[in-house]
Design goal:
Blueprint lengths: L20 E7 L11 H16 L3 E8 L3 H12 L5 E5 L4 H12 L4 E6 L2 E3 L3 H11 L3 E5 L12 H7 L5 E5 L4 H10 L4 H7 L5 E6 L2 E4 L6 E5 H7 L11 H10 L3 E4 L5 E3 L7 H4 L10 H8 L11 H19 L2
Parallel strand pairs: 1-2, 1-4, 2-3, 6-11
Antiparallel strand pairs: 4-10, 5-12, 7-8, 8-9
């Protein structure tokens, strides 16, 4: 049968223009029990805080990376409510780098802000990240949290900055220790082991055109630009959470700087809802918004943190082994 009539879209005079910043995340929550018991609440906080604090020039793009039905339904409801602009589904878990291939290459914005799906955002993270990009023409990625250890003996960005006549540099233990302790608590890292590794730490503070940044970054959350993405992706990785460090190396090889903000503007939540006032000691409960205060009341009761590094490592191995047996990845 031949076509009947004409496609009504032929008479449209304009098409939707994407916003200049695309916010991106990949979600993998295969079940809502065990390790993932609170992950849906964490995801809700991540998406809501990211969009709320980004402003009107940004919109959200989400890839569901093989999650269970309840999570997929949740994401579809968030899109129907207007929180998510672009929603993609993969039946299989593509891994982190595989998700980057889809999200970063598919994002329509000039600027692309990626985050793991368990990160909390505070006011100013996008604005300050954009300011750094505009002040440092060699910037390739900017993380919204001070990242320690960017000294010239190990960090290529610092090495490049100290010989750049347009950039002022300062070296030493500059990042406030409470910021670093908050990071450790967010990822449940061992503080004693961290202190041992950081005995000779030297942070490198950069300044150009009145804008400050530290010479380091992390791929759990970052802002980048489309021209950088096109040079680095698509990429390949063989395991779900592997291959992301290659991204850092290749960015360096292309001459791009890895930078971060001097303010603490994003916080890793992990797989549960924490009491933020316990993890971010420089703030008092009264300084949190009502929304952020409510997060503490929803954390799981009776859940303790195992401090022994050996026990924690063994449990991580058991969790990974069980996951591969259950889901075949």
């Amino acid at each position: 049968m031949s076509r009947v009539g004409q496609n009504p879209t032929k008479w449209l005079k304009e098409v939707y223009q994407p916003k200049p910043v695309t916010l991106c995340t990949a979600v993998h929550i295969p079940v809502l029990e065990g390790y993932w018991e609170q992950s849906l609440s964490v995801l809700d906080e991540c998406l809501t805080s990211m969009v709320r604090t980004a402003g009107t020039e940004a919109e959200l793009m989400v890839l569901d990376n093989g999650s269970c039905r309840k999570v997929r339904d949740f994401l579809q409801a968030k899109q129907a409510d207007g929180l998510i602009a672009y929603l993609l589904f993969s039946r299989q878990n593509l891994g982190k780098v595989g998700a980057w291939n889809v999200l970063l290459l598919g994002a329509p914005g000039e600027f692309i802000a990626y985050t793991d799906s368990d990160v909390l955002f505070f006011d100013g993270w996008l604005q300050q990240s954009l300011e750094i990009f505009r002040a440092f023409p060699k910037a390739g990625m900017v993380t919204g949290q001070p990242i320690a250890g960017g000294d010239v003996s190990r960090c290529w960005t610092a090495q490049a900055a100290v010989v750049d006549e347009t950039v002022r540099t300062e070296m030493g233990r500059i990042i406030p220790e409470e910021f670093l302790l908050a990071q450790l608590k967010g990822i449940q890292a061992d503080e004693n082991e961290y202190a041992r590794r950081q005995q000779n730490r030297k942070d490198v503070l950069l300044c150009r055109e009145g804008i400050f940044a530290y010479a380091n970054a992390s791929h759990f959350q970052f802002l980048t630009v489309k021209k950088v993405v096109k040079q680095l992706f698509p990429a390949k990785a063989d395991i779900p959470l592997g291959g992301d460090t290659q991204f850092d190396i290749e960015m360096q090889d292309l001459g791009y700087w890895r930078l971060c903000t001097t303010s603490y503007l994003v916080h890793h939540l992990g797989n549960r809802i924490p009491r933020l006032e316990d993890e971010m000691s420089w703030l008092t409960p009264g300084e949190f918004s009502e929304k952020h205060k409510s997060m503490g009341s929803r954390r799981a009761s009776g859940v303790g943190v195992i401090q022994s590094p050996r026990v924690r490592q063994f449990l991580k191995w058991v969790n990974a082994k069980t996951y591969r047996l259950l889901y075949g990845t």
